[in-house]
Amino acid sequence: MARLLLAPSVAVAVALLVKGYSEVGDGFSAGMIVALTVALQYVALGASTAERVLPLLRLSPILMIGGLLMSLIVAFFPLALGKPPFSHLPEPGRHVTTVGTLELFTPLAFDVAIFCLVVGVLTTMLHQFASTEEETEEEREGEQTG
User: Fold this and answer.
1) Pairing verdict, β 98-99 and 102-103
2) pTM for the whole structure
3) 91: DSSP letter
4) How confident is the model over 61-85, as pLDDT tens digits?
5) Residue 24 gets which letter from DSSP?
6) Which of 71, 90, 81, 84 is nearest to 27 (CA)?
7) Could you tell me where the beta strands, DSSP code E, fall in the chain?
8) Cβ distance 21 to 103 under 8 Å?
9) Are the C-beta atoms of 57 and 50 separated by less than 8 Å?
10) Which pLDDT band holds residue 38 (cuts at 50, 70, 90)?
11) Number of other CB atoms surrounding residue 106 within 10 Å
12) DSSP-assigned letters across all residues of the chain
């Protein structure tokens, strides 16, 4: 069941991330949905199987650092233009580049950065907790047989 929930959960997270630009939505909630789905994979399948089934989990530290850097860049880039931090770019009333109906502007970039940061941090923590548990179990088994 855990494996079946992975794709729909990611789809819901992406929809939540994107819908924020016609209504209220955010990268934090979308990141939590994906991280909780990954946690479910760890619980249901075990750490080694979950990491084998989801090889992208190895990129969690990179995702975490990339999300942090992207959020800092998006937040403080307006300072280079003489505007206050977190300014909305392009400014209201100016032309906004779109992909379909999705508008590409700084709030979307910031939400994507927060999404990456949340998913990266939480999946890295899951990996650390799971690897400690597995190493401890392997040590116990080695002591019992040795």
Assistant:
1) antiparallel
2) 0.81
3) P
4) 999 999 999 999 998 988 888 888 8
5) -
6) 71
7) 98-99, 102-103
8) yes
9) yes
10) very high
11) 16
12) -HHHHHHHHHHHHHHHHHHTTTS---HHHHHHHHHHHHHHHHHHH-HHHHHHH-GGGGGHHHHHHHHHHHHHHHHHHHHHTT--TT--SSPTTS---EETTEE-SHHHHHHHHHHHHHHHHHHHHHHHHHHHHHHHHHHHHHHHH-
Q: What's the token pair of residue 140?
A: 């116990």
Tokens of 36: 């909780």
With a pLDDT cut of 70, the percent of the chain lying above it is 85
Write out the DSSP string of 33-50. Answer: HHHHHHHHHHHHH-HHHH
Cα separation, 20 vs 74, in Å, equals: 17
Residues 106-109: contacts with CB under 8 Å, at least 24 apart: 106/74, 106/77, 106/78, 107/20, 107/21, 108/20, 108/21, 109/70, 109/74
Beta-bridge partner residues of 145: none
In angstroms, the CA 146 to CA 142 distance is 6
Q: Which residues pair with 103 in a beta bridge?
A: 98
**Contact criterion met (CB below 8 Å) for 94 and 40:** no
